[in-house]
Design brief:
It is a single chain. By secondary structure, the protein is mainly α. The protein contains 21 helices and 6 strands. Strands 1-2 form a two-stranded antiparallel sheet. Helix 6 crosses helix 17, helix 12 (196-207) runs antiparallel to helix 13 (212-221) and helix 19 (401-412) packs across helix 21. The longest helix has 33 residues, at 364-396. The protein is globular and about 65 Å long.
């Protein structure tokens, strides 16, 4: 019994010292070893404190161990270490993907939101810094590369040829999202966000036409504050999750009007291995495909930046880069089709790093303070999107309601969630069109949303 108590006491002391080493401040108060000690340890404080030698400028200086092992010193050393910050972001990104893949909680929140929440907590507890050169490198170099990597499969001829009436439903949904954004910004102008209000409205508009990559592109182009990005993603994910449940409730399983069936595909996702099988060909990730993907994306980004400086230096180069990638994928579909799986995989990694960096630069207090207004904005935006979509698509164009629900899913969630919904509802012939119209959303959402900004700032 005595041995067990001694072991338990030793374990508790070890854990306390680990907390002391890693935790700098909480609410502006510095925790010291003396304040963290348990009462039974304080009884032995009359024992002389051990000392260590720190060598500076070829002479030794004797200082107490308690002063040497200070949380602020340890944390500051880690904060200035670029390798430590990059390691932390990579671990957080991997944790977000793993949680989405293996846990119900992670699937409900999605990998980007889990990644942002973890990095937000780590930064606010002082384990990783609020500001670091690593964050700037991610935003400056990796995010622009992620844009073309996600668009390697955006062959417009294939979209028009294979998407059919679902493309019409998707376009109606995109127009409905723009109308919903204007209506939501009129009712809830997001004044609490200051100058970032209209920027967040544009970013959410891009997300509800394309996907997360478009939100990232618009947020980076308009330089939205990191804490605002964290709050917007967190709030919108809550609303989107409820909206998906609503769409699944309305949609009827089984064959649609066209009973033609197609083989199911293994679709890329943040939480799955990315292997896409279509038309009898398996698109695998190899060393050569990774190298070619990064090289192709780098060329497109470089040309896009050069053209942007020559044509219109006031806009982001991501807009021109997106257009160039779509044109290249349409003109050379065989080359880019071979790279789509590796491109998506690398793009997801870069996107996860962006979300980790955005969460790390955000304030937890500000996120919680801004979340309610952002939730209300997303609710109004998506509600108008659905009402206008059903009015035009069902009332005027007489489109199949299941196709309208699927198109709405592709608008709000992106190609992966739409194709997954088609598979879950056994709409086999719509699986490939859902993926294609979602990619079409990737290709068009950024430019549409950035062009909406002047209207929101001048007319509303």
């Amino acid at each position: 019994m005595t041995r067990r108590r001694t072991a338990a006491t030793s374990l508790r002391l070890l854990l306390r010292w680990m907390v002391i080493l890693m935790m700098p401040t909480i609410n502006g108060f510095m925790w010291t070893p003396k304040q963290m000690m348990a009462p039974n340890v304080r009884r032995h404080q009359q024992i002389k404190q051990p000392s260590i030698q720190i060598y500076q400028q070829n002479r030794s200086v004797l200082i107490p161990l308690k002063a040497a092992i200070t949380p602020m010193v340890v944390t500051s050393a880690f904060h200035g270490n670029i390798n430590f910050v990059l390691m932390s972001l990579l671990l957080v990104s991997a944790t977000g993907v793993a949680m989405e893949q293996k846990t119900t909680f992670g699937k409900a929140l999605s990998a980007p939101l889990v990644t942002m929440l973890i990095s937000l907590l780590l930064a606010n507890f002082g384990i990783i810094p609020f500001k670091s050169p690593v964050y700037g490198l991610i935003n400056k170099y990796l995010v622009p590369l992620a844009v073309p990597l996600f668009l390697f499969d955006s062959d417009l001829r294939r979209v028009v040829r294979d998407a059919g009436s679902l493309l019409i439903a998707f376009i109606v949904g995109a127009v409905s999202t723009i109308i919903g954004t204007i209506a939501a910004f009129s009712l809830i102008p997001l004044k609490s966000l200051g100058e970032d209000g209209w920027k967040v409205a544009c970013a959410l508009n891009s997300r509800h036409i394309g996907g997360a990559i478009n939100f990232v592109a618009v947020a980076d182009t308009l330089t939205i504050d990191g804490s605002v990005v964290s709050a917007a993603i967190a709030a919108d994910n809550v609303v989107v999750a409820l909206y998906f449940a609503f769409l699944f409730y309305l949609a009827k399983p089984g064959a649609t009007k066209d009973t033609e069936k197609e083989d199911a595909m293994n679709l890329p996702s943040l939480g799955d291995d990315i292997v896409v099988t279509n038309e009898g060909q398996q698109n695998l990730i190899t060393t050569s495909s990774i190298v070619y993907s990064v090289a192709s994306a780098s060329c497109l980004v470089t040309i896009g930046e050069m053209m942007t400086r020559a044509i219109c230096p006031s806009i982001s180069s991501m807009v021109i880069t997106s257009i160039l990638t779509v044109l290249a994928a349409t003109c050379y579909p065989k080359w880019f089709q071979k790279l789509r799986s590796s491109g998506s995989a690398i793009g997801i990694l870069f996107l996860q790093l962006f979300f980790a960096a955005s969460g790390a630069s955000g304030s937890l207090v500000l996120v919680l303070r801004r979340a309610p207004s952002l939730i209300a904005f997303s609710v109004v935006q998506i509600a108008f999107h659905f009402i206008v979509l059903m009015f035009i698509g069902r009332g005027i164009l007489r489109l199949d309601p299941n196709e309208l629900y699927l198109a709405s899913n592709a608008n709000v969630g992106g190609p992966t969630t739409a194709a997954a919904m088609a598979q879950a509802k056994e709409w086999n012939r719509l699986t490939l069109p859902a993926l294609l119209v979602g990619v079409f959303g990737y290709a068009t959402a950024t430019a549409l949303s950035l062009s909406l900004g002047p209207f929101l700032t001048t007319r509303l």
